[in-house]
Amino acid sequence: MIGRAASYGVEVVGVSREEVDLEDCAGIRQVIEKAEVDLVVNAAGYTAVDKAESEEELALRINGIAPGVMAQACAARGLPFIHVSTDYVFDGSGEKPWSEDEKPNPINAYGRTKLAGEAGLREGRNCLLRVSWVFSARGQNFVRTVLRLGSERRQLSIVEDQVGRPTYAGDLAEFILATAPRWSGAPAGDPAFGIVHFANEGAVSWKGFAEAILQEAGMDTPVVGIPTSAYPTAAKRPANSVLSTEKLERVFGFKPRHWRAGLAETIEIMRQAAA
Ligand SMILES: NC(=O)c1ccc[n+]([C@@H]2O[C@H](COP(=O)([O-])OP(=O)(O)OC[C@H]3O[C@@H](n4cnc5c(N)ncnc54)[C@H](OP(=O)(O)O)[C@@H]3O)[C@@H](O)[C@H]2O)c1
Predict the structure, then answer these.
(1) Which of 67, 91, 111, 189 lies at a CB distance of 3.0 to 4.6 Å from 117, suitable for a disulfide?
(2) 4 has a pLDDT exceeding 90
């Protein structure tokens, strides 16, 4: 986000884990009390979905308690608070895209802790951005894993009965930067606050996503589709993770581009970094 901020006329101040640990509520309050900013964004969290099954208390402190502390500290200073949550608050049933007013029913520990965090910021000048299947050129994510495995193995077996909308982190960052002035000026009750689903256009299975990643990178490793039951994990995953972005388009006039465009940008950034 910092790299993209200048073109929006926004200055972003990052806060590292060394400056504040999200398990430290007093530390969180102190950082927000002192910050010279117009709004606060939290994209940090406990994200190890499988490990959370055995570390739910730790995940709950980071995902469940810290966001409410941030929201309160922001409210005390009259600052809007933007928090990133997840499609994993839903149980994945049915085939319809999930809208903001549907009832969450998480099926794993990670989803439960993220839902607990949402409860702390339902009121006031808070925007809860639920995103799904996030990828970028950096960090640990599906795109980077598929490229690594695609170069190591003769064939990949990827789950094909889970469907979602991949989200390019660069597009999410640009949406937040473009919307920052609106959030800063909007009063409580404005539709820019509350829950908003954000994902790129296009629903796909993990198998279809993997095929597109390899194709975009010019690799011909074959991909075989497998059912979830053939790839057991500690945490259950929702079968239908498709988020509806109707509200995003209606309230913000923001129509997300197709995830393939974000994927092409991601692969290009990786190519340039490797050159
Ligand atoms: N990735 C997805 O597909 C996806 C899907 C839906 C929603 N989300 C949500 O999107 C947000 C970002 O996800 P991501 O995939 O970018 O996660 P990520 O790569 O795992 O990054 C999480 C960040 O949180 C920091 N963090 C973790 N525990 C902390 C603590 N106790 N104190 C301070 N910082 C801490 C990590 O710091 P270190 O680097 O030092 O560990 C890391 O910088 C999360 O809220 C996640 O729930 C992600």
Answers:
(1) 67
(2) no
Q: Is the CB of 17 under 6 A from ligand 1?
A: yes
Tens digits of per-residue pLDDT, 209-247? 999 999 999 999 999 999 999 999 999 999 999 999 999
Report the alpha-carbon distance of residue 130 to residue 248 in Å, rounded: 11
Catalytic-role residue among 46, 88, 110, 168: 110
Q: Whose CA is nearest to atom 18 of ligand 1?
A: 47
Partners of 85 in beta bridges? 130
Strands 223-226 vs 156-159: parallel, antiparallel or unpaired: parallel
Nearest CA to ligand 1 atom 20: 47
Ligand 1 site, residue 133, Cβ cutoff 6 A: yes
**Backbone phi, psi, residue 86, to 5°:** -140, 155
Whether the CB of 47 sits within 6 Å of ligand 1: yes
CA-CA distance, 49 to 111, in Å (whole number)?
A: 8
- State the pTM of this model: 0.96
